[in-house]
Amino acid sequence: AAGVIQSPRHLIKEKRETATLKCYPIPRHDTVYWYQQGPGQDPQFLISFYEKMQSDKGSIPDRFSAQQFSDYHSELNMSSLELGDSALYFCASSPVGSRGEQFFGPGTRLTVL
Amino acid sequence: AQSVSQHNHHVILSEAASLELGCNYSYGGTVNLFWYVQYPGQHLQLLLKYFSGDPLVKGIKGFEAEFIKSKFSFNLRKPSVQWSDTAEYFCAVNAGAGNNRKLIWGLGTSLAVNP
Known about the structure:
The complex is a heterodimer of chains A (113) and B (115).
Chain A: E1 5-7, E2 10-13, E3 19-24, E4 29-37, E5 44-50, E6 53-57, E7 64-68, E8 74-78, E9 87-95, E10 103-104, E11 108-112
Chain B: E1 3-6, E2 10-14, E3 19-21, E4 23-26, E5 32-38, E6 45-50, E7 56-58, E8 64-68, E9 73-78, E10 87-94, E11 104-105, E12 109-114
Parallel strand pairs in B: 2-12
Antiparallel strand pairs in B: 1-4, 3-9, 5-6, 5-10, 7-8, 8-9, 10-11, 10-12
């Protein structure tokens, strides 16, 4: 079965650089979620999109932005990277009619040097 | 505000021991409940879910959970753990209606099973 695809899987950036993470949801899933997970921490909800519109916003820094495109894939744009942004970034998607069940991608491990 | 609390942050067991991880939530309305597991170095995977009906739900790998509405609890159980169950376990609750599918997460329980 198709799963959530994230790219790249690993990314190394310098401080103050920008990064773009991509997420391709499972086909026919209409909602995408972004999470940040620091080492040994629980996933922190950043932002979600339903039918290409932002549906909820969590603890996403102002330096980050995201959008969902017409083909339902989503991109998380991160600017002015800081050391503290080093984390695993997960994308999840939900199908139409879901009651909260989310399907997670493998994550992008971002390291900021 | 809605919240989810997991009582045990770190649990260490020997193989074949029984497991119960506590999860309580704060929300008075209809909820959808989930347990996710994250094996070392891997992404989150759904272990089991409860939407309605039989409050005792069975998931993958021999896990089960019981929804007790009066106690606002959804505890995870396994009669006999294996070394391969070593992982982080997260309880999550969806208390939204309509298209609100946001999950409220617990802080997670780290389970280490000694062979």
